[in-house]
Amino acid sequence: MTTPLVEMRDISIAFGGIKAVDHASIDLYPGEVVGLLGHNGAGKSTLIKILSGAYRRDQGEIYVDGKQVEIYNPRDAKALGIETIYQTLALADNVDAAANLYLGRELMTAYGTLDDVAMEAECRKVMGRLNPNFRRFKEPVKALSGGQRQSVAIARAIHFNARILIMDEPTAALGPAETAQVGELIKQLKAEGIGIFLISHDLHDVTDLADRVTVMKNGEIVGSAKVNEVTQDEILGMIIAGKCPPNATPGPGAVNL
Amino acid sequence: MTDTATGGTGAASRNRDSALTRFLRATEIDSRILGMIGALVAIWVGFDIYSGMLRPSDGLFGGTFLTARNIWTLLVQTSSIAVMATGMVLVIVMRHIDLSVGSILAFVAVVIGSLQVFWLPQLGLPIGHPLIWVIALVCALALGGSIGAIHGALIAYAGIPAFIVTLGGLIFWRGASWAVIRGETVAPMDKTFKLIGGGISGTTPGSIGATASWGIAFLICAGIVAGLLYGRKQRRKFEFPLRPVWAETFLAVTGCVLVLGATYVINRYYWPTGVVNRWAEQNNVTVPEEGLDISFGYALPVLIALGVGIVMTFLATKTRFGRYIYATGGNPEAAELAGINTKRLTVWVFALMGTLAGISACISAARLDAASNALGLFDELYTIAAAVIGGTSLAGGLGTIYGAILGALVMQSLQSGMTLLNFESAYKDMVVGGVLVFAVWLDQMYRRRLK
Amino acid sequence: MKFAVKTLLASVALASVMPAASFAEGKTIAVSWKTFQEERWKTDEAAIKEVVEAAGNTYISTDAQLSASKQAADIEGLVNQGVDVIMVVAYDSDAILPSFQLAADSGVKMISYDVLVEDPNALYVTFDNVGVGRLMAQTMLEKGKTEGNFAFIKGDKGDPNATFLFQGIMEVLQPNIDSGAIKNVCETFTDGWKPDQAQRNMEQCLAANNNAIDAVVSENDGMAGGVVSALEAQGMAGSVPVTGQDGDHAALNRVALGTQLVSVWKDARVLGKTAAEYANQIAEGTDVTTLDGVSTFNGGPKGVEVPAFLIAPNAITQDKLAEVIDAGWVAKEKVCAGVTAGSVPACD
Ligand SMILES: Nc1ncnc2c1ncn2[C@@H]1O[C@H](COP(=O)(O)OP(=O)(O)OP(=O)(O)O)[C@@H](O)[C@H]1O
Ligand SMILES: [Mg+2]
């Protein structure tokens, strides 16, 4: 077996008294899509935000390519090739799509100034692939629709040669055509050998796209399973009751029957 | 980048638009700036007509306000606040505030004042040594910048709100400036340093004369044309829609006419006879019967403010630094998640603000030819007011440098105009306060309608 | 408090029975400062302390830190300590009246120092403030201009002193204004007595009158600095007489350079010395009204007649600069910086 692209071991974080993530371990291999499932407030977003550098864990280790790494902030994560589409989208509302796409990684002219024209041109290309109807390049993203904003956030995550992509409910606000587009995109990225964590509440999406699923409940991992070895009902049982089916590897959160 | 007035909406809406909207879209002019310029023109014309009714003079409309001399003085009086307002815009865009700029100004002024008058002479640089003004200037920038950086670090790394840190600074630095000179007034400033204030030192004026003023005007015109051409080239390179040629021409012509017109007016302000005579005496020139017309040209503080405005606009719109400031102001969390070091950015922004306060300290002390701990009292309020009148939103994320400079000019115009008309100062304060609130209300209305 | 008053009354009664005994002990003279954050009060204090201690008395002080209530508590405390005389630099001259009453009831003698407190029993020692205005105007008429366009740069509109000064100025100039010799062409208040504000006002005044300004009456030295800068920009500094007051070092330098006509100087040490001498005498039991040189004053807002000694200020013009230097008020190098040799006697 190859070394995992990412491995998070025994991760815990608490906010005040709430253990948002409790001794969770999870891994991801190159070219693999891992679906992260769980009820609202299960701790999915918190777990991946630790990986993306938005939060600092209280405990546990993170390995990338088998080597232990320290991720203190989003810059560290980006340096390791980890890109994230946040559930809250995290766009700078008052600047336009191109500025958001390149935020933190602006294109510069030969004189060391911002190359707005080049950025806009690139942005038009990327958005053309993701959301061909998108026209409002000059507007601040505040003026865009939820789906348009989502397209911008996705564009930003995939545009910089990520090796590890985290998608926290990327299609929540998208129309059917755009959702299908994102599905195609995920398959294409996967084929390029990129590892993807996909968080979604849509079981169909997940079973269609993911190779494995990991289920969380109350901050703990219930278990992980290969998608083709468990049924949808069994996955639902994991999410709702924390019941780990026989074909899955149980985690600390599994209910013992 | 941040203006909302432009953009390529669909062709359907285009047909419904009025001629004005079409004009604004084609030229990509921010309609708010037009509003502000309109207000400024109204104020100027109003004051000129009114002062002319009381006491006819040779202003454009028969008053005292629109004379070359008053415009020249008005610009000089505006420069110190204008310089600081450009920094305040960025501070407010970052969702912070800086209440300490007036006190920093006083502190820097008394330190560099003491430096020129007491300390450097003690260290062996006699009064009048040509190095003194350079050292004073460098110290002013460094000192202002360091104080700002300290404020910024307390805000960013110790997590104390900017309002509190700079409120503390407002009190602290005012006290510190008293402590440096024990309430005395330090005067006079170094002869060369004094020129930064725009006044006359002996027979050397703190302004650049007619020829150099025309030179700068033509340089700016060339800059405007080059900028438009470069923008057009860039757009063509990436196959973006171009502005119609008539719109480009209009922008170029209007810009150049404004610059050259302003220079013409400024150059019509001549040396007062007292100075001319002294100068003539020193240079063995006989002054003809009808007098000698020697132009002041642009004053140094005005050129400094202009330079600061250009540099700050460049920083705000053309560099990463500026982009990050606006992005952080729009959504601090998103900026942080995008990998921007918002803490370090905060320190830099406050350091920049402090440096600008240092520049203003030089202008103010040089202009007054003295430094005292009362210098710059209430300047923080005028600076914030200038930024806000200029369209900076206290909610963060929105604001332009040129807006703040125009805001400072509007406020100083009101004050100078009312002084010219011998308004009682209580009424002056009431008018300025009222205008501040009114301007912000107008801006809000405008933005709401835009939505 | 009642208890304290009673014991004090008792001790005062005792003291008046046996004056000789308390003489031997030495008296205690207290000063209640309104603030000690300003440099000038340190000068006053040194002068007071010297005189008080030279007479074998004890000097103590309190600092009200710019709070009327703290000052009231301070005075109450001093009364309770049984001091003989309290000099008060009042922060709020109305709010402090009950404290004066209390002290008088307890037999403690009061002196209002520099700031008027309208208590008919308290001695008021100050500089003649209306006199400062008069003196400025007189000097202007004698050594400056007697006719032409005059500009008046007044202090902060909220400060009653600005108005007092102006009254004095106008008293002297009125005849010339009535005769048409002097024209009042600009008159402005200056927020917070700010020099830069005064400069702006002066620039506007010059512009409005096309530089036809013959004299400027500025109510203090700081503002005079702003005025001179504005004049200098028009090449008029030195030819237009400018007044001021305070004896600011920079202003005295301008007087030497000829760009300012006069700085009316109120020597804080004279004030301190005079008040302390009176305090010594009052402490020994001399009645206030019989003190040498004391007359009455009723020019306050309520018109109460108080015993008072008004010290005449000193108009420092170029020919009198030696006085400030000899008094040790300012170093000669400071006054004479940049002065052409031989042009000012005091600088040679
Ligand atoms: N910044 C925070 N401060 C305090 N509590 C937090 C914070 N972020 C998350 N939590 C808490 O941690 C728990 C897990 O939240 P998380 O956002 O990870 O859930 P989730 O699984 O992503 O849910 P959803 O499906 O609704 O997105 C919740 O109880 C939440 O209230
Ligand atoms: Mg979530």
From TrEMBL, chain A:
GO MF annotations in UniProt: ATP binding; ATP hydrolysis activity
SUPFAM superfamilies given in the database record: P-loop containing nucleoside triphosphate hydrolases
Start and end residues of each ABC transporter domain: 6-243
UniProt keyword annotations, A-Z: ATP-binding, Cell membrane, Membrane, Nucleotide-binding, Repeat, Sugar transport, Translocase, Transport
Name of the protein in question: Monosaccharide ABC transporter ATP-binding protein (CUT2 family)
Source organism (scientific name): Silicimonas algicola
Cellular component terms per the entry's GO annotation: plasma membrane
InterPro entries named among the record's database cross-references: AAA+_ATPase, ABC_carbohydrate_import_ATPase, ABC_transporter-like_ATP-bd, P-loop_NTPase
Pfam families reported for this sequence: ABC_tran
Membrane topology type: Peripheral membrane protein
First-listed, main subcellular location of the protein, grouped into a coarse class: membrane
Localization terms from the record: Cell membrane
UniProtKB/TrEMBL annotation, chain B:
Listed name of the protein: Xylose transport system permease protein XylH
PANTHER family in alphabetical order: ABC TRANSPORTER PERMEASE PROTEIN YPHD-RELATED-RELATED, XYLOSE TRANSPORT SYSTEM PERMEASE PROTEIN XYLH
Location(s), subcellular: Cell membrane
Entry function: Part of the binding-protein-dependent transport system for D-xylose. Probably responsible for the translocation of the substrate across the membrane.
Transmembrane segments: 33-51, 71-94, 101-121, 127-147, 154-173, 212-230, 250-271, 296-316, 345-366, 381-405
InterPro entries, alphabetized: ABC_transp_permease (IPR001851)
Pfam families: BPD_transp_2
Record's bilayer topology term: Multi-pass membrane protein
The species this protein was found in: Silicimonas algicola
GO cellular component: plasma membrane
Keyword Methyltransferase on entry: no
Gene Ontology molecular functions: transmembrane transporter activity
Keyword terms, alphabetized: Cell inner membrane, Cell membrane, Membrane, Sugar transport, Transmembrane, Transmembrane helix, Transport
TrEMBL record, chain C:
Single Gene Ontology MF annotation: carbohydrate binding
Cellular component, GO annotation: outer membrane-bounded periplasmic space
Highest taxon of source: Bacteria
Species name: Silicimonas algicola
Protein family (similarity comment): Belongs to the bacterial solute-binding protein 2 family.
Protein name per the record: Xylose-binding protein
Sequence ranges assigned to domain Periplasmic binding protein in this UniProt record: 29-286
Signal peptide: 1-24
Subcellular location: Periplasm
Record key words, sorted: Signal
